[in-house]
Amino acid sequence: MDKKLDISVVVPLYNEAESLPELVAWIKRVATENKLSYEIIFVDDGSTDESWSVVERLKAETPEIRAISFMRNYGKSAALYCGFDLAQGEVVFTMDADLQDSPDEIPEMRRKVLEEGYDLVSGWKRKRYDPISKRWPSKFFNLTARIMSGIKLHDFNCGLKAYRRKVVKSIEVYGEMHRYIPILAKHAGFSRIGEKVVEHHERKYGKSKFGIERMVKGYLDLISVSFMSRFGRSPMYLFGSLGTLMFLFGGITALWIIIDKLYSQFNGLMWRGVTEQPMFYLALLAIVLGVQLFLAGFLGEMINRRSTDRNHYLIDKTIDR
Questions:
Q1: How far apart are the first and last CA of the chain?
Q2: Is 81 exposed, middle or buried (0-12, 13-18, 19+ CB in 10 A)?
Q3: What is the extent of the structural domain holding 218?
Q4: CB count, 10 Å around CB of 175?
Q5: One domain, residues 161 and 306
Q6: What's the pTM?
Q7: Is 320 contained in some domain?
């Protein structure tokens, strides 16, 4: 698309046929009132209802719509990844298709990106209309994410976010990582991350598509993204350090057991055979694990060194001759 656009709105959807016409009309109204050129990118994540038919009908009425449909349900992260790949707007927005996110927030969030210099602005649903079974786990979840990432956001999982275009072109969203996009962005070098209190609406149609299993997946992905952020480029720092500590602990313990046995034997004191002491086997186990951890870090470092090239680094500014 050659024409420069003010905003792109990426909307992942799964069985949201009833809400789509209202959402499109809402986005169009906001864009028109604020004189913004726009595109709406729908990513149908394998819907089993009439969602894709509705999107096709809306496309005939609204040329600004672009859409792709998955063969099956891959998840929200995959939908966002493909939507980001298509996005051409100066500022890229994401929002859910269930009408709980308000497009009326778009102008102010765009202003914060362009005028206040944020790379990413995340919505904060201070007042939520979700059931308490979702609100309290979400609070604990967000607290954990804040502590582990150091990013002071109240609502990592809010679907309404605004990004500078360069951000979405520089990160890879997979698994359940959509809720950790701020962490991925920070790891990629985009540290100017802010938030805005946004209006949250009650679900008007259908029901939530997320179950309790997303909590388990979410925490596993939090551990994964935290590890990659800290040690993805230098796995030896983690595995090598742990391996060295375990090897030293095991080696010193085994040596102490042997010296203690020899000392007792030569001085006529009561002594136990080295192999009769359970601690000796724990020391050997620590030595073996230490060597394995060190080798894991060493191999990870070698693989990382071979796979690294200049294209993996994001260049902000250049000076040519």
A1: 31
A2: buried
A3: 5-231
A4: 15
A5: no
A6: 0.73
A7: no
Task: Show contacts of 137-141: CB within 8 Å, 24+ apart.
Answer: 137/215, 141/215, 141/218, 141/219
Is the pLDDT reported for residue 162 higher than 70?
yes
Last residue of a domain, one of 176, 201, 231: 231
CA angle 188, 179, 53 (to 5 degrees): 110
Structure confidence at residue 247 (pLDDT): 93
* Whether residue 265 is found in the same domain as residue 180: no
Strands 38-44 and 89-94: unpaired
Q: Is the dihedral of CA 74, 142, 162, 318 positive or negative?
A: negative
Let me know whether 173 and 41 are in one domain. Answer: yes
User: Going along the chain, which residue ranges are E strands?
Assistant: 5-13, 38-44, 65-69, 89-94, 120-124, 161-164, 193-197
**Window from 112-116, 134-138, 157-161, 190-194 with minimum mean pLDDT:** 134-138
Structure tokens at 136: 């309290």
Burial 125-149 (b: 16+ CB within 10 A, else e): beebeeeeeeeeebeebbeebeebb
For the chain, how many structural domains are there in total? 2
Phi, psi of 41 (to 5 degrees): -110, 105
Residue 83 confidence (pLDDT) = 92
> What tokens were used for 12?
């992942």
Determine, yes or no, domain membership for 281. yes
Mean pLDDT confidence for 123-143: 73
The rounded distance, in Å, linking the Cα atoms of 262 and 259 is: 5
Residues 185 and 167: their CA atoms lie apart, in Å, by 7
Note whether 30 and 99 are same-domain residues: yes
Contact 61, 25 (CB under 8 A): no
Nearest to 94 by CA among 76, 117, 112, 111: 76
Q: Is residue 221 part of a domain?
A: yes
**46 backbone dihedrals φ, ψ, rounded to 5°:** 70, 40
91 touches 162 (CB < 8 A): yes
Residue 8 backbone phi and psi in degrees, to 5: -120, 135
Same domain, 161 and 266: no
CA angle 108, 113, 117 (to 5 degrees): 130
